[in-house]
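Re-run with default settings, no changes from the original entry. Doing this only to confirm the output is reproducible before filing.
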Amino acid sequence: MLSFPNAKINIGLLITGKRPDGYHDLETVFYPVGVRDALELVQCSEEQSTLHISGLPLVQDKESNLVWRAYKLLQAKLPRIGPLAVYLHKIIPMGAGLGGGSADAAFMLRMLNQYFQLNLSAGHLEAFALELGSDCPFFISNRPAFAAGRGEKLEPMPLDLSAYDIQVVYPDISISTARAFAGVEPKPAAFDLRGLPDLPITAWRDQVFNDFEASLFPQYPLLRQIKDELYAGGALYASLSGSGSALYGIFERGKNAVAHIQDKISSPCTSFLSPGNKKIM
């Protein structure tokens, strides 16, 4: 069984409070984009399951890998899940704010549900996903959604960017989530992101913000430069995704800024072009 876990971007990210459990309350819009890993499950003749990783190198050990943790989580609760050979090919960069690890974990849960005919509902899968990470539940339905709480309180959103291209730019910078949150001061949301579908995309630049940019851009000037170049290259809207370090620009179809950015940015960056598909599964 083969699937292709996709990344997400955050359209707006507002840190609205600090919680007693140490987490932060936030409001954001998750939107799926077509930057993808590859995940395959193969029947295993051995008694023990195996995990094989290729593509981008990972610093974590197998026990910490979210795909492996997803497998062990379901196996502990549903012993009829048997041994598998699992192959993960990483394309989505880590520490980029694109949710690659969370997507891999959620897709693993979905695939196990199908492979072993567990008949778990989407709600059950989302509950398991939440045990693995705050934004993992989003990738179970994998549809545009307004997210609140830690990112786990999801409301479907009728946001359609299919008329646009989304250009994702990843500089070779990894930003820890803890460091990113340490630099933000929670405050009430100045704009209700649930109104995003009714706001013309040309107005997003002045009303839709990522709170991490104020503290991270002074620390990492390259991030500010990339955002500026996305706008200079014709983006209708550009932003940091999550807590970074990836940024994205939303362009009219066929007018992405790949060549423009590569000419202007001296540091190495990786660019991904994704049509703004309404449905990515």
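DSSP finds nine helices and twelve strands in the chain. The CA atoms of residues 1 and 111 lie 8 Å apart.
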